[in-house]
Design a protein that fits this description.
Subcellular location: Cytoplasm, Cytosol
Structural class: alpha/beta
Number of helices: 11
Biased composition (Basic and acidic residues): 11-44
Region (Disordered): 1-55
Distance between the termini: 172 Å
Strand order of the largest sheet: 3-2-1-4-7-11-12
Strand content: 5-15%
Keywords: Cytoplasm, Initiation factor, Protein biosynthesis
Number of strands: 12
Order of helices and strands: HHHHHHHEHEHEEEEHEEEEEEH
Radius of gyration: 43 Å
Shape: elongated
Largest sheet: 7 strands, mixed
Low-confidence stretches: 1-8, 17-22, 78-88
GO molecular function, one term: translation initiation factor activity
Helix content: 40-55%
């Protein structure tokens, strides 16, 4: 047999082998595949080694990382404790940042205020500012009267400097400084603003006269006395008279806090031999109701004292609700002690007449529809680190005109919508009467 036949017919038991073809292209492809396989194996080995190294590093760093995490958590806890009060302050700044917060001053610390010059500021105003702070001088009428009395003392002791030649112009600058000074201790009420405008008008008239310094002082003090007599004392007497004619004997009235006008009305009413049943509502935050009860007891007048939170239980026995006023706005809204708006809503619900006692010099050309655009922060307390809270209380609130049945004034009984008309009439007469122009006696 030939060799070709032997290759085509192998022996029994031996495996068949194909004939190898030595092609150059096929060999190159095989070599490339083998190189790619070896490179892939090397890369896989490198990745495995890198993973193993990373795992070892992580195992070594685990205790260090845990310690760092614990330290960061403690730092974050401290930061939360420190930042939460600031968040509360930021919240207050968002909607109450425009409202002033007044500090407590003593006769020594009050001289550190920027607007105060201890060498030139009169002692009467230092005492008045301290009374504003410690609560000895409360109530819009009382504050206005004390302001005018302190101003009279300052006028009498004032000495014109050598650089100034006219008393009116020099004292007008001093008046502006004093009025701005009052704003550092309490918000200036509308009665004080009206008295300030009146005195400023007097100084403008005095500027065109030929009075000397002493004559100017006497005339200006007389004008201040006229303002007190006409707009406060006489107005109070007329309001008491109008209220006495309005309220019949045996009426059950409810009064809130302490009002100068309502206090005088009750005392005068009982002096005439008439009887009233009186409920005095008190806000424990200020305690003015307790002061009114003590004052009435000194006059031998009995009354009932209840808290503002309990007032709804006795409204069925009340015939009229009487409240005082810090000011009446030109849109007919009432600015008074916080809690007055609540009483007005309850009076409207129970159909009880809601009467406001207010002198006309407290009428304001301003307009306000809410209690946050203008107000005074009575108290602001913040808790400690364990108690994160801010206790905030306001001093005034706004009662809209539709809750007010009548305003008792010295000009008569008027609706809340007539406030603007009364303001227009009094502006014609410099808020009091026609000011008599001073003339130098020859």
């Amino acid at each position: 047999m030939s060799e070709k036949q032997n290759q085509q017919n192998p022996k029994k038991g031996e495996p068949w082998k194909p004939k190898e073809k030595f092609d150059k292209k096929a060999n190159k492809e095989k070599q490339k595949q083998e190189q790619e396989q070896t490179e892939a194996k090397q890369e896989s080995n490198k990745t495995v080694q890198q993973q193993q190294q990373q795992q070892q590093q992580q195992t070594n760093l685990q205790p260090i990382v845990q310690q760092a995490i614990q330290q960061q958590q403690t730092i974050n806890d401290k930061q939360i404790v420190q930042t939460e009060p600031s968040k509360e302050q930021n919240k207050r700044k968002d909607f109450l940042s425009h409202l002033p917060i007044f500090q407590d001053y003593t006769s020594v610390s009050i001289k550190t205020v920027k607007q105060i010059d201890p060498l030139t500021l009169h002692h009467s105003f230092i005492e008045l500012c301290i009374q504003y702070q410690n609560g000895q001088c409360i109530g819009s009428t009382h504050r206005c009267v004390e302001f005018l009395n302190a101003l009279k003392q300052f006028i009498k002791d004032y000495k014109l400097s050598k650089q100034s030649t006219y008393f009116a112009m020099a004292f007008l600058d001093e008046l502006k400084k004093i009025f701005n000074l009052m704003k550092n201790f309490r918000t200036v009420n509308e009665g004080m603003s009206t008295s300030y405008l009146f005195i400023r008008e007097c100084l403008m008239i005095l500027r065109d006269t030929k009075l000397d310094e002493n004559e100017s002082k006497i005339w200006l003090c007389n004008q201040i006395d006229q303002f007190i007599q006409s707009k406060i004392i006489s107005a109070s007497e007329l309001i008491v008279k109008n209220a006495t004619q309005l309220i019949q004997e045996g009426t059950t009235i409810l009064v809130y806090a302490r009002s100068y006008l309502i206090e005088n009305f009750i005392i005068n009413y009982f002096k005439q031999g008439k009887q009233l049943t009186i409920f005095v509502v008190d806000n424990p935050q200020f305690g003015e109701g307790s002061q009114l009860v003590n004052r009435l007891q000194q006059q031998g007048i009995s009354c009932y004292q209840i808290l503002l939170s309990h007032v709804s239980y006795i409204l069925s026995k009340v015939d009229k609700i009487l409240v005082g006023a810090s000011s009446m706005l030109c849109n007919g809204a009432l600015v008074s002690r916080v809690g007055t708006a609540l009483l007005a809503c309850l009076a409207s619900t129970h159909k009880i007449p809601f009467l406001v006692f207010c002198e006309s010099y407290k009428f304001s050309e301003k307009s306000q529809i809410d209690s946050l655009s203008w107000n005074e922060i009575a108290q602001l307390e913040q808790g400690n680190e364990n108690q994160q809270y801010t206790s905030l209380s306001l001093r005034y609130d706004i009662t809209q005109s539709n809750y007010i049945n009548m305003i008792v004034t010295e000009v008569g009984l008027i609706p809340a919508t007539s406030v603007k008309a009364v303001i227009g009439e009094f502006k014609k007469y410099n808020y009091v009467d026609a000011i008599e122009v001073p003339r130098k006696e020859q």
